[in-house]
Write the structure tokens for this entry.
Amino acid sequence: MKSTFSLNAIAFGNLRQRRGQYVLLVIGIVLAIYFVATMLLFASTMFISLQERQFQRLGEQDAIIFNTRETPLSELTERGVFAEYGVAAIQGYVLPDGQNSANGFSVAVFDDVALQLARKDVLQGRLPVQAGEIALEQSMLARLRTTAAVGDTITLTLQIPDSVSFMPETIIKDYKLVGILTDKLVYLEQRGASLPAYYDYPAGVLSAAEPLTVGGKEVVNVYGRYLPDARESYTKMDTFCAEMGLLGKDGRPPYDIMHYQLFDSSYNNSDIVTTYVILIIIAIVLVAAACLGIINAFAANLEARKRQIGLLRAVGATKKQIRQIFGKEALLLSLFSIPLALVLAYLTVWGITTAMGDSFLLRPNLLILISVAAAGMLCVKLAAAIPLNTASQVPPMQAIRNVELSRKIKISKVASKKSFAVPHLLAQRSHTLYSNKQAAITAMLAVSILLISLAVLYVPSILEQATFNYGSDFLLLDYRYDDDWLMAYNFHTPGITEQDRQDTAALPTVAKVTGEKKLSVKILSNTITPYVTNLWEFEYLLAEPRHEDNSEYAEASRVFKALQHQSYLNSKEKYGYMQDYLTVSCYATEADVVQRLTPYVASGRINLDKLASGEEILLIAPPEYGLYEEQYNDGGWTRRLDYIPDPDVDYQGIYQNDMFQAGDSLSISLLYSDISEQQHADGPQQYNKDGTRQLPEDAVRVDKTVSIGAILQPLVDGKYLDSNFSFMHTEIGDILTTTTGLQALGFDVPYASLNIMLAASPDEVMEEYLTANLSGIAARTSGAEFKSYIAIARENRKMAYGIVIAVYAVLFLFFAICTSMINNALSARIRASKREIGTMRAVGASEQEIMLTYQWQLSVMFCWGTIIGMVAQLVVCTWILSIDPLWGRVRPTPPVWQPLLFVALLLGICSLSVRAKVGSIVKDSIIANIREL
Amino acid sequence: MQILQCQNLCKDYAIGENKVHAIRDISLAFEQGEICAIRGPSGSGKSTLLHILGGLEYPTSGKVHYQNEELFAYNDNQLSILRRRRFGFVFQAYNLVQELTASENILLPVMLDKKMPDEKYLAMLIELLKLDDRLDHLPSALSGGQQQRVAIARALANKPSVLFADEPTGNLDGKTGREVLSLLKYASKEMGVTLIMVTHDLHIAEQAERIILLEDGLITQDSGQREA
């Protein structure tokens, strides 16, 4: 006989003797740690991936201060603005065509810290080390329209800054191209246009030995990294700039903040962030579910050992010792489960990230693994603590003699029934007496139903995204924001040219290139009717501003509109418009696209020849439209149009087209200026002191008279006119013609977009070739964007399928946890009721009645979970559908049959399991059952 | 009139590779209203015999007839119906359903039979067993004697023909035991129920009209009908 005996021996002994029960417990614990680990690993992967994506594109600096002039920079660290900083001294601004600043970029000498912070990673070659050498970002070669390679000499025309502006003469200099760098400027420009030298992100790197041009003055940019407390750095940077007199032309401190934040709205991470948020929510739910599972498994385990606890307490074990014995068991189990769970979690995250594409970086991190293990242990400890605490609180005699039931029946105020159906009464009594043990199952079922409903709600839209047809394979896009109701500014800025279009069309496998153009023109008219004045874009026509809401902005809005109208009157006088004018967009696209618009013709006809000659144009104007105001919850409102009025809607007004008829002659006028952003950092639109718009002296007015060939309706048979275009977004009054027609009108402008359709799906090599070439063509134009819909669609598909697989895996796991929890609870109940089953049979209950008793218990168990779950899912889904703007007008309804099917399936499986368990007990003789305990 | 007979009953249990003969070739007959005690030392097979007579356990061989009907020719359902209508059982460990109150336990066989309870008869039974003030209690809140009285009430609730009692006083103190026994005898006499009880206690056995002594699975003595 053993002479030494300890609490550990009891704990280990328990483990050995109750293997079956502990397997279930281990599964529960592994699941809990697995979910915690997966959640944290995924969070870390997401964070690292998003951060790395930003760093690769924008650099690692938290902020760039432009043009620091004579500022003593050492104070930046002394005063705690930055933890470290580096300097880039801009020596010149490259004019790609030798004359024009459009598509230009600056070159600078970077110190080591700035190089590192700006992430000027070398793709080919090296960084310059001696005078006359240069390294350029990849896309800059395209802007220079050169095919130069590393080692070649390139000739650059440079504007040299002189601390205020530029030296009068440009200089031409030869450099040896020693390196090609990763692109930064193209991404930085998407955050906001850069301005030559004084507010620019240099895209060329010169060596420190490069001499400064005589008479020039470097423009010094500072690349800084914040202190750990980013907010403090940010505040201090403001103060620092103000104190040092560092102010931009717009009166604001001249810096750009790139400080990495997960939810940075200025940077498009929406795909990853959405996934991240969804998965984190699911993981949290799963952790909660796994904890419930552990609580349930521990509780069932401890319930079965209540007598053992009672005996231990009766022989003198303290509550603390009871907690220690069972706590140690939990600890031992979690120590065994953790490595297993971590490996599984790592493999899962690896699987998900691999499925989702190359943009995810999974880096094993010891700190994370340790914290995951600790978090997992904590999770298990917390989950185990609740039943453990309850078990240790049970008085010894209560544990040995089951007096708990009597107490509960008193609390529950259960009255004896005079007449009853035995199975029903037993099921009802079990529910009353063991309700605490069923709470976890009810919660789990309810959460499962909610989760399934959310999956049912979201999966179709996720799959829809995966199969979204972008209408073309590649897109080059050049947004222009410089037009407004007054005039087109910055009119002659170079953009995507005809040459670019031809180069694109000449690429192999390109079947078709469709170009779209846009500019603002004015329709001159003597008769302005409410058909147009009710539209907000023409509100400048109104002498009396329309009544606004009573919000705090109402007065400011009224004043603004009055000034806008005054500016309108001033512009008419200044530029000699005798009639009123409606500033509309004039779009141009390929003839074959225009030809396809025939179904939208409300009156007249599309005559391509007359469009091409500039004799005719097409005009967008529905025969009528209904106008209504939509109030937001926050008090704001918006005005909405129905192009086909709905008889059920109470419109503010329905307006007939009484302005435009096919065949009418139309006077149109182009009013433009060449004032650009380079002249006004805060945009070309400038204001006088009285608040009215400045009317540029250089404005040019070109008038044309055309006739309206056809009136087009924006919406026919539920299909919008705009669905035929890739970029164009038409409104009432907008003009449409062919690209040839636009030239004939004399209004030609660069392309706003080029849609590229391929003859066939390209293979990997061809796709890479096309992507490289098209990126090069896009890079010729500053601010032009290149999109590969092939790659985007592929990524979308990968992402969507990854998410859907993850969602289904999670649902399957939930199904498994639910089944195991319910089975655990019922098995424990049936095991404990063996004697009762024997008694019931002795008293004359048939096998069928015994079976029915447990089936009823199962049904009652499911009933509450299902009711709560269905109500919760209806509330949550209805709420989501009411707030989520992603849903279209035809919103899906909250799912009903899918969660119910889940419940039915679960009930079916559990029911079979109950039958098997009860059946095996009933098979034994009645006496064997009665003698069991 | 004979109500229950058994012929050549044998029951073997396999324990590992060994076979234990719990009862061997037992043939007996019981008269209606008879009070019979089966006595014997522990392991003599008396409980096994009682369980087989009550249809709770199947014999290895031999037959049991209740009112000339072969008991084990019934299927499980028919046997269950017979137990709930014609037999009553009282066990040493009371065997009450823990989730049901005393009154619900008493009503159990009636409710399983989906019959309207005979209120008058049940009231008489409850009064007789002095359970009036314990009816709404769960078994765990009752004393041993009270639980056994509930078990007797349950056994008698459906007005059975035969009452089987397996060591009905085994868990009770002397005084309570005697009370329970008197109740069983009273019920048997008042209602004409055949009482077959198993006991190892000579004093209890002597209360019966007939004493059967079982030793090592064999009847070694059957007193036949005698004056208790």
